């Protein structure tokens, strides 16, 4: 997608469709000429367009360089916030595409109380997000061709926001593209190759990929146990971005990279199994976030890790009841081979601690229970450190994503005690599934502050809506990036 900025008056902007935002109940837009203004007020008077959120009306133009104008409702001014602006942009960009536009221009709205630059950023993110399609495996594309160019129209104060939004929009869509890939196309080895290509293109990311033998040498016993039933080798992917010259402190960003999760010997019911190809969405988010971080260049050091494997049953597979030990040295009794994500992540976080990371954030499609507790609206946050969690919560919010802080009272740790090992990988009952999954990780990091983001209910959208296609959402990319930016500011 080609993204540019125009400082011209709206009448002079060249585009197939020019999108003009309109608040509910506000007088018609200025600067469009007499004829079009009359047509618009006619539509308003007829009750066809009131400016309600997401409402659109298309007009052919006269005297404008744009061929059509799409009037787009923003709703009531006091309800407009950044995430809503992003959704607004996605919806209206899709509506413009529906009318066959190749070039879409966006007049940026002025929103009282919000920064113009950040408004521009969120509009850019939303438009890129809404227009994204995953068509890799469609040989016959009956859909209308996609928009090729986006033009954002406003004063010079929008320039930085549009470019930031473009970086984040591209990074999110890169993540969506890998998260979409099925298990036979995205093996752990292919995942690693994609990370290598991203790092090479970025130019300022060092990357090291450990294969199965490398994982054995590192002592990643938990990751290797999960991989045992697979014919595909695991990959332990480690990236370094040295925005502070490698002097630290280091921020660790870590993602679960289960390229397919069948449940293993504790096999999942088959009807809900197919979409477990997106069980690498936390790892996918790390990949996209590192691409964006390499472009924003925050002044901090970031260690990024993706633990990649699939989880399959086989004669060699790990079994319920097995006792295994990983990098932290703690022993784990396997109650369910389907609680594999926490095993893989536990080795990742232990590695990050050994590498000297000061603070950690993990993102993972870790528990179905996250959907039961919070639904698809907010991701679950679990931590061993309230201050770090409060910092991460703010970053998630500033990134326009949504989280919720779950409890971590000491008693929750009792839920996954084991009679035979240091801990079990599940609770005995299904109580507090998301908390247990997160707290399991805390047992492998000592005192190092860790915030875990459970994105199981956000990473995949089962149905298309006005704002985005069904499928991979790219959640957590923008949060990761914002966390790194704040980490850089904090440690200056
Ligand atoms: N990848 C799943 C969690 C998941 C479920 C993600 C649905 C997205 C949608 C994870 O590995 C898993 O299977 N978790 C188990 C844990 C249980 C065995 C303690 C779960 O949630 O049922
Ligand atoms: Mn599982
Ligand atoms: Zn899983």
Plain-language structure description:
- It is a single chain.
- The protein has 492 residues and is α/β, with parallel strands linked by helices.
- Helices cover 35% and strands 21% of the residues.
- The protein is built from 14 helices and 19 strands.
- An eight-stranded mixed β-sheet has the order 7-8-10-9-13-17-14-15, with helices on both faces.
- Strand 11 and strand 12 (331-333) form a beta hairpin.
- Helix 3 packs parallel to helix 4 (159-180), helix 5 (188-202) packs parallel to helix 8 (281-296) and helix 11 crosses helix 14.
- It is elongated.
- It starts with a strand and ends with a helix.
- The model has no long low-confidence stretch (mean pLDDT 97).
- The structure holds ligand BES, manganese (II) ion and zinc ion.
- Zinc ion is lined by residues 258, 261, 279, 340-341.
Q: N- to C-terminal separation? A: 35 Å
How many strand segments? 19
Principal-axes geometry comes out as: elongated
Which regions have little confidence, pLDDT < 50, spanning 5+ residues? none
**Strand count, sense and closure of the main sheet?**
8 strands, mixed
């Amino acid at each position: 997608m080609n993204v540019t900025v125009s400082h011209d008056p709206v009448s002079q902007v060249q585009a197939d469709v020019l999108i003009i935002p309109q608040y509910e109940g506000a007088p018609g837009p200025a600067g469009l000429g007499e004829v079009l203004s009359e047509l618009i007020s006619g539509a308003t008077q007829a009750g066809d367009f009131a400016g309600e959120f997401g409402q659109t009306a298309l007009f052919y133009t006269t005297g404008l360089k744009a061929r059509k104008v799409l009037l787009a409702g923003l709703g009531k001014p006091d309800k407009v916030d950044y995430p809503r602006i992003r959704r607004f942009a996605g919806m209206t960009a899709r509506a413009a595409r529906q009318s066959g536009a190749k070039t879409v221009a966006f007049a940026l709205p002025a929103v009282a109380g919000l920064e113009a630059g950040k408004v521009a950023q969120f509009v850019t993110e939303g438009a890129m997000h809404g227009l994204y399609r995953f068509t890799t495996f469609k040989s016959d594309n009956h859909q209308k061709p996609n928009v090729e160019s986006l033009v954002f129209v406003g004063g010079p104060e929008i320039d930085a926001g549009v470019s930031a939004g473009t970086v984040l929009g591209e990074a999110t869509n890169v993540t969506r593209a890998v998260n979409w890939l099925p298990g036979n196309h995205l093996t752990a080895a292919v995942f690693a190759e994609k990370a290598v290509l991203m790092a090479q293109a970025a130019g300022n990311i060092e990357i090291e990929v450990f294969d199965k033998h490398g994982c054995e040498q590192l002592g990643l016993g938990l990751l290797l146990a999960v991989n045992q039933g697979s014919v595909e080798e695991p990959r332990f992917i480690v990236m370094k971005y040295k925005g502070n010259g490698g002097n630290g402190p280091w921020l660790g960003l870590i993602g679960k990279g289960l390229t397919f999760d069948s449940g293993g010997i504790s096999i999942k019911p088959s009807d809900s199994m197919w979409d477990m190809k997106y069980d690498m969405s936390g790892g996918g988010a790390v990949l996209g976030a590192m691409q964006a971080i390499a472009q924003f260049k925050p002044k901090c050091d970031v260690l990024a890790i993706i633990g990649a494997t699939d989880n399959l049953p086989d004669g060699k597979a790990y079994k319920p009841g097995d006792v295994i030990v990983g990098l932290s040295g703690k022993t784990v009794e396997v109650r369910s081979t389907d609680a594999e994500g926490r095993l893989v992540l536990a080795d990742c976080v232990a590695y990050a601690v050994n590498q000297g990371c000061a603070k950690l954030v993990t993102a993972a499609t870790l528990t179905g229970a996250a959907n039961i507790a919070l639904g698809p609206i907010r991701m679950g946050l679990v931590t061993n450190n309230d201050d770090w969690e409060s910092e991460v919560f703010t970053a998630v919010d500033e990134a326009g994503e949504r989280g919720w802080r779950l409890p971590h009272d000491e008693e929750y740790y009792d839920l996954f005690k084991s009679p035979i090992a240091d801990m079990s990988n599940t609770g005995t009952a299904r109580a507090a599934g998301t908390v247990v999954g997160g707290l399991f990780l805390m047992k492998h990091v000592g005192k190092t502050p860790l915030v875990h983001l459970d994105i199981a209910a956000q990473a995949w959208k089962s149905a298309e809506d006005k704002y985005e296609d069904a499928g991979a959402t790219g959640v957590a990319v923008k949060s990761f990036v914002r966390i790194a930016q704040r980490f850089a500011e904090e440690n200056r």
